[in-house]
Design brief:
Helix content is 12%, strand content 38%. The chain is built from one helix and seven strands; from the N terminus they run E-E-E-E-E-E-H-E. Strand 2 and strand 3 form a beta hairpin.
């Protein structure tokens, strides 16, 4: 299978990690919850973890790759004050200012 589309996701936060099983069919996410999140990868999508904080989704079908990347991001969307969470590689997030004294 030749990959036409790449979708990179970054995990930002202390202790947040991602990993896959050796076949690449299950994605494991540690996102600060009491349990590990397991996501079953769709058959048309391949997932790689180059680093513990970098996820790469590849495939031929644009809709399935972006849909799976969005489902990964929905597990822990970036929060507006510190920016912790999962975001796309080239995404620019507007940050809010904290409380004033």
């Amino acid at each position: 299978m030749e990959a036409k589309l790449f979708c990179f996701l970054e995990i930002i936060g202390v202790g947040y990690k991602a990993s896959t099983n050796p076949q690449g069919s299950i994605l494991y996410l540690k996102l600060g919850f009491s349990h590990e999140i397991r996501l079953q990868v769709a058959s048309a999508v391949r997932v790689f973890c180059f680093k513990p904080n970098l996820i790469c989704c590849t495939g031929i079908d644009h809709q399935k790759v972006t849909q799976f990347a969005a489902s990964i991001k929905s597990c822990k969307p970036p929060e507006v004050y510190k920016g912790k969470g999962i975001q796309y590689r080239n995404e620019i997030l507007p940050k809010k200012q904290g409380k004033k004294k």
